[in-house]
Design brief:
heterodimer; A: about 280 residues; alpha/beta; Protocatechuate 4,5-dioxygenase, Chain B; 8-stranded mixed β-sheet; 3-stranded mixed β-sheet; 10 helices; globular; B: about 120 residues; mainly alpha; Protocatechuate 4,5-dioxygenase, Chain A
Chain lengths: ~280, ~120
Amino acid sequence: MGKIVGGIGLSHVPSVGPAYDRGKQQDPAWKPLFDAYIPVREWLAKLKPDVAIVVYNDHVADFPFARYPTFALGAADSYAIADEGFGTRPLPEVSGDADFSIHLCEQLIQDEFDLTVCQEMGVEHGFLVPMNLCFPSTASGWPVKSVPLQINVVQHPLPTARRCFKLGQALRRAVESYEEKVKVVILGTGGMSHQLQGKRFGFMNEKFDQWFMDELERNPEGLAGISHQKIMEEAGAEAVELIMWLTMRGALSKKAKRVHRHYYAPMTTGMGLITFED
Amino acid sequence: MGQPLKPIPDTSIFDLRLSRRGRRLNKMCEALCSPAEREAFKRDEEAFMTRFSLTEDEKKLIRTRDFKGLIEAGMNIYAMLKIGSATGNSLYKMGAQMRGESYEEFLKTRNISGAV
C-alpha cells in the first residue's frame, strides 16, 4: 500500500543552490534559511519516506518554449542534473522509481489528468533546491527516490489553482492504490511573493505570504479558488508559482496537521516553509 | 469561460502572445544551456544572434544590454537569466536596471542585502 506521510510547501529560490554548494549555511545572511530546515530534516528522518514527489516548474532548462507541457511527470529510474545556463551543479544524478511513476501515470491519466510522460528528464533549481534543503545528497547519492512533477507556471495560460489542487487529490488516490509498500512525501515548491521583471522588480508582500500559509493550513479548499490575477497583483507576477503548493495540499488528508512554519525574505523573494504530517 | 488576464502596472505577464513575439530571443537564450553554445556566444555575439535570426531591433537590445527592452520584446525572465549569466549580469544587476536604479541603490532597498 502506498501512503502519503507528509507534505512540504517551500520556495525554490535559485540563489540557494550556489549558497548551498559553497557551504554558506553559517553565513549570517543565509543562516536563518538553512537553520529552518534542521528540524525539518530531523522530522523527515523519523518519517522515513521512500519517495519524494516533487511538484516544481522548469525554468526553460529542460523544457523549451517550443514544447512546454502543462503537466509533465517523470517516469524514469534516474534524472540528470540539467544545465540551466550557468553550468551543471556538482550533484549526483537523481534516483527515480520508474515502476511507481508508471503506476502514477496510469492512474492519473485514467483519472483524466492528461500528463506528458517523460522517460528522460533533466532537473534544475526548481526541483534541486528543495531537495538540497530537505533531502541533501552525499557522495553515495540521495536519501530518497524522487518523482518529478513539472507544472507550467511560466507561460500563460496556466492551469488554475483549483486544477492543481485537484491534481493533488488525484495523486493521493493514485499513491494509495499502489500495491507495494511505499511511504511518500510530497513537496509543493516555488513562490512565495516575488516579481523578477519590469519596474516592479523586487516586489514582495509578507502579509500576503503569511495569509497564504494561514489559508493553506486552515482553508485549502477555499484557497484553491484563488485566481492567477489576484496572486500576481498582490504578490508579484512570478508568485503565481504558489499554485504548486496547492497540489501538495490537495494530496493530504483532512486530518493532516501542520508541523513547521518559517518565513525569511532577505532579497527579492519571500521564502516560505510549511510542513504537514499526514 | 476563462477570465482574460488584466494588465498589472510595471509588470510583464508572459503569455503565449508575448512568448510568440519573443520566439527568436527565447530560442537563442535556450541554446545557452549548452556550454559549447555559451562559448560560441562569447566568441562572436553578432554571429550567434544572426544564427538565431534576430531582427535588427532585437540585436540592438542585446548589444546595449537593455534588459527592460528585452522583457518588453517578449524575452522571458528565465531565458534572460541565461543571457545575463553569459554577459556577466546577475539577476539583481538586471533588476536594478529594470527599476531604473544603480545596483548599489537597489541593494539598499533590500532587507538583507548579503544574501546574494
